[in-house]
Fold:
Amino acid sequence: MPAPKVASFVAFSSSANSTPNHCNFGNASGLKKEHLDYLKYQYRQDVATGVDYNWVRRHDGTAHAANHSIIGIGRDIDKLGKYLDSWRGRGTHYDKRHGVNTKVAYDKSKGVVIIIEPHRIHAYHFPEGDFMDEKRYPPLPGN
Structure:
């Protein structure tokens, strides 16, 4: 199957100097279908769903919206897809709210918890101390 055709993931910012700026061409309702198709082709459905989830959450207007903009990735959906995909199968903990089927890992370099659910992989900023206290995210059995 050939890759879905996407014009570019680089757009020009609206600033006067028109600096190239990676963006995802989406809105608060989620990514456009062609971008979801691209992410699904590149990284699988769970990553595409996770990138879309991060995009919606970072634009939902809540106090936690900024937590879903991952340091060093910003609005580049391909970088976010690659980052989330790199965590597939690397869960060390689980989410008490969802049970052991929801694996969790922590990226100290970015201060980010990665949630690895059967249907989506997504991430958000979370204090390392809160992660390490294991109240919400205890280690997986056997770890």
Residues 45-58 form the longest helix (14 residues). Helices lie at 33-43, 45-58, 77-85, 128-132. The radius of gyration is 16 Å. The chain is about 25% helix and 20% strand.
